[in-house]
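Journal club side-thread
Mid-discussion, someone asked how the predicted structure for our own chain would compare to the paper's figures. Pasting it here so we can look after the session.
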Amino acid sequence: MHIHDGVLSAPMLAGGFAAASGLFAWSAYKVRDEEIPQISVLTAAFFVASLIHVPAGPTSVHLSLNGLVGILLRRRSFVAFPIALFLQAALLGHGGLSVLGVSTCIFGLPALASWWIYDGMSRRGERWRFASGALGGFMAVLLSGILLAFVLWLSNEDFKRLAQFVLAAHVPLMIIEGIITGFAVEFLARVQPDLVRGGGVQ
């Protein structure tokens, strides 16, 4: 889901940076020292998960784990994503620096949605833990794909067919990420339950 420089229009880039800056400020507000190690580990996990690209026609797909990041970091997710995306662009050439704001929103907003999904479903009891994690992971990829397709289509009418293909190419990934996130949440709840606590905890 990485976007390269020169693809999006200038207004889209400006809007992306404005939105991402505001969300980053909200996310980083009063971050505690004890939260930094967890943010760092999940930033690294997101960075590594995105490195393996599988070609899919004119685009490629890869794990992102943004749903899992959202469930574990909650509103702190918007600290992790811009750092990881910047390092991917600067060190590896995955994506562009000018689209950093838009890319942060594409991964970060669905991560927040996955947190809200998990938080709401986890109130029903432990038997909903795997399902809530799986649905959160699935929806994170689905919403990221929709946002990516939307910004491509909005920036250039010629990208409309590509945007549709990109969304379709990510359908198998939605299922895979849902399963991975569900199992990860189930495992972490057994060994480190504070990491996946729900019920409105921020």
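Post-session note: The chain has a mean pLDDT of 86.
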